[in-house]
């Protein structure tokens, strides 16, 4: 079959449908519709008869206000006496049994009609006009005259204008109505841009050992077997390797699990995200937040009972897993990763324990300063800043700097529980807290759900729970002693993202040291049953102006040298020029602006500005205080794109002056954004709240040195531009020029508002804040 473009004089064949199975073609033809500039074609082919299965996707849960009010009323009248027993498993089962009975009675499942729903902006008049337009198009196809063509085109263009206006009015009114409701506002924006569409559905068959599998139950079981065995398949170090935990520091203090108060539970629940994803009980966090006050007494009792007895309830250990496609063949099980949805109440109990664990870890300084993952006042930005400061310092000192970027296979899935518990004991997680963690890890189970069909339950023997609160924190403690393996290599870690480095003036000495120390590192990985992915483990030699040949090896396998690498979302190149990363950001921002342009007829300026903040700012903001100081010739295209976005938001001409637009929408230009973010870091440095490895690069002058030296940092010496543009030099320079009253701002938010106000006023009067 072919698609045909119809014109007054001629017809053109465009689309084609080919098949070598003519007998399977049930029907084919051309559709008389003007959805594009040519007639669409179709073909209906025979397919294998699939067994129709009734799934949960055909049902929806009643989460209306009325249903919730009825649920709350019933909960308020409940007697929870059965919960107040000495066994936490019995207590939690009784709690959930009573809660779920009331939940299912009031928030019932009902069968979805599956009927097509019109676009929300659609009116009866527009629907009738669309039908008339289709009829005019058919008249033109039949008569093929200039009169019928003109009549159709005029009507179509007028209808397009009416629909655009209707959409813009509808979404404008909706945004105005919900301007105080952030969640509703983002829902509207996502609806307009189709960002809230569900992810691609799992295909109707999979292939294993060259056999097609169509049964959804069997597919679910195959997925579950694959996911639970990932850790087992990588646990390749079964032979006993002698090790006495000599790299794990023994902490004499032991953790104490304090009593849980109702106010703590309220605060934890309040700070949980309003997520609609459901757990194994079909509960979502929004529902839990709605009913918290009516179940807080029995649940607080359960939390205290759990902490005092060292038992994590078994019913909280069941994860619902949804496969998420990564890349490659969609019919291959290995091309999916698991998304684990844990019980809502388990997340709350985990956060109760995590708050006590965090305080103990920070108080006793258990985690090394090199670990930036999942810690307060730490972030990926700080990790990259630590690494790049060390690189720029080495380059400034005419040293060679080699950084090895380690890749581990499924690191979170292969954690050995017994070894983790040994390390926790060394760190001071002893007694009932140690029992609690053991109970938390033991006897965990999961099932996979696809299209509402669930697999059998499977035990999880290895790893830390995916999607959990405690998982990343336990992993940090597991990998913490890696830093102690070598007294030569430096390191920066963000959970399992690890880079090890060494620098010196003699490249042969640098290479020799790294190769020797990597033997120790590999041995540590073997002892801890972590598997290196040597194909994805790379290294970069910085400050290589002579194209030196360097060979690094692990287990007699050569590590690949690369000129650039993506580390924690930032492209780092061997010259530390940031050219590659800026090119990457430019591509992302350009795509985001294309989306902005595509919906400019649907949203008013306020809506477009929200979309700009959602799609563009995350790319421009992320680690910009590090890479944004690159050569202006590299970063200027980002500013050009930013100006284009402002003109789209204002629906103005492509050559219109941009300064008034930045002022009107209170948006800071890219180069000012860089400085703004740098001063955020310097404010924290002045307050002493940065991670220790970052804080120590800033040294304050003695306040008696000069009256003008109030809270002024010493400016480090530098030789190269790379060092000059680092935050340790450039940041100090900018901070020292800042007004004293701004340095004394009570909060970072106050300082931020001061700077933004001054910058925007500079766009108006031409007085630049930065010189």
TrEMBL record:
InterPro entries: DNA/RNA_pol_sf (IPR043502), RT_dom (IPR000477). CDD domains: RT_nLTR_like (cd01650). It comes from Nothobranchius furzeri (Turquoise killifish). This is Reverse transcriptase domain-containing protein. SUPFAM superfamilies: DNA/RNA polymerases (SSF56672). Residues 305-572 form the Reverse transcriptase domain.
């Amino acid at each position: 079959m072919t698609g045909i473009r119809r014109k007054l004089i001629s017809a053109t064949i465009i689309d084609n449908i080919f098949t070598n199975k003519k007998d399977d073609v049930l029907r084919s033809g051309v559709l008389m519709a003007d959805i594009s500039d040519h007639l669409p074609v179709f073909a209906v082919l025979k397919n294998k008869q699939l067994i129709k299965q009734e799934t949960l996707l055909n049902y929806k849960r009643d989460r209306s206000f009325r249903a919730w009010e009825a649920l709350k009323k019933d909960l308020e009248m409940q007697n929870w006496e059965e919960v107040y027993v000495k066994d936490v498993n019995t207590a939690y089962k009784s709690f959930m049994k009573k809660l779920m009975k009331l939940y299912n009675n009031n928030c019932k499942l009902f069968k979805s009609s599956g009927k097509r729903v019109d676009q929300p902006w659609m009116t009866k008049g527009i629907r009738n006009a669309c039908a008339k337009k289709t009829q005019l198009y058919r008249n033109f196809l039949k008569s093929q005259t200039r009169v019928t063509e003109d009549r159709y085109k005029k009507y179509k263009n007028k209808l397009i204008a009416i629909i655009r206006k209707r959409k813009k009015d509808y979404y404008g009114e909706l945004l105005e109505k919900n301007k105080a409701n952030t969640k509703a506002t983002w829902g509207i924006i996502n609806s307009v841009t189709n960002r809230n569409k569900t992810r691609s559905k799992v295909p109707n068959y999979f292939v294993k050992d060259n056999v097609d599998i169509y049964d959804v139950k069997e597919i679910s079981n195959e997925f579950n077997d694959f996911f639970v065995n990932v850790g087992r398949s990588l646990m390749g170090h079964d032979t006993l390797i002698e090790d006495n935990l000599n790299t794990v520091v023994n902490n004499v203090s032991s953790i104490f699990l304090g009593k849980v108060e109702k106010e703590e539970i309220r605060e934890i629940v309040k700070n949980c995200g309003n997520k609609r994803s459901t757990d194994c009980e079909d509960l979502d966090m929004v529902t839990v937040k709605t009913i918290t006050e009516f179940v807080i007494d029995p649940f607080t009792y359960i939390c205290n009972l759990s902490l005092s007895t060292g038992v994590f309830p078994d019913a909280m250990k069941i994860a619902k897993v949804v496969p998420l496609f990564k890349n490659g063949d969609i019919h291959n099980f290995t091309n999916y990763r698991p998304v684990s949805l844990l019980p809502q109440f388990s997340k709350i109990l985990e956060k109760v324990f995590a708050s006590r664990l965090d305080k103990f870890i920070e108080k006793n300084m258990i985690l090394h300063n090199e670990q930036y993952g999942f810690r307060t006042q730490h972030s990926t930005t700080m990790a990259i800043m630590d690494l790049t400061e060390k690189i720029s310092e080495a380059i400034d000192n005419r040293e060679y700097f080699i950084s090895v970027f380690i890749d581990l296979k499924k690191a979170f899935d292969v954690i050995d529980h017994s070894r983790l518990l040994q390390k926790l004991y060394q760190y001071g997680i002893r007694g009932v807290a140690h029992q609690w963690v053991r109970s938390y890890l033991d006897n965990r189970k999961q099932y996979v759900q696809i299209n509402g069909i669930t697999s059998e339950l499977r035990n999880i023997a290895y790893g830390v729970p995916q999607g959990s609160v405690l998982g990343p924190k336990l992993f940090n403690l597991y990998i913490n002693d890696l830093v102690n393996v070598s007294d030569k290599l430096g390191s920066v870690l963000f959970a399992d993202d690890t880079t090890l480095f060494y620098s010196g003036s003699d490249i042969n000495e640098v290479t020799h040291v790294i190769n020797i120390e990597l033997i120790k590192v590999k041995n540590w990985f073997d002892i801890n049953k972590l598997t290196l992915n040597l194909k994805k483990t790379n290294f970069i030699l910085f400050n290589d102006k002579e194209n030196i040949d360097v060979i690094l090896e692990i287990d007699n396998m050569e590590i690949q040298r690369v000129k650039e690498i993506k580390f924690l979302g930032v492209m780092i190149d061997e010259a530390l020029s940031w050219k590659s990363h800026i090119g990457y950001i430019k591509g992302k921002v350009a795509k985001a602006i294309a989306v902005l342009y595509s919906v400019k007829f649907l949203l008013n300026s306020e809506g477009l500005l929200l979309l700009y903040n959602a799609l563009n700012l995350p790319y421009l903001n992320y680690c910009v205080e590090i890479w944004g100081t690159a050569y202006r010739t590299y970063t200027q295209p980002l500013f050009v794109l930013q100006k284009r976005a402002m003109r789209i938001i204002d629906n103005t001409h492509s050559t219109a002056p941009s300064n008034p637009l930045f002022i009107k929408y209170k948006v800071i230009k890219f180069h000012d954004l860089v400085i703004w973010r740098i001063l955020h870091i310097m404010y924290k440095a002045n307050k002493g709240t940065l991670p220790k490895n970052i804080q120590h690069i800033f040294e304050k002058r003695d306040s008696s040195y000069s009256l003008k030296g109030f809270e002024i940092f010493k400016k480090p010496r530098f030789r190269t531009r790379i060092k000059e543009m680092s935050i340790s030099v450039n940041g100090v320079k900018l901070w020292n020029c800042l007004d004293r009253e701004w340095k004394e701002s009570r909060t970072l938010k106050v300082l931020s508002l001061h700077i933004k106000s001054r910058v925007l006023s500079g766009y108006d009067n031409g007085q630049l804040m930065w010189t």
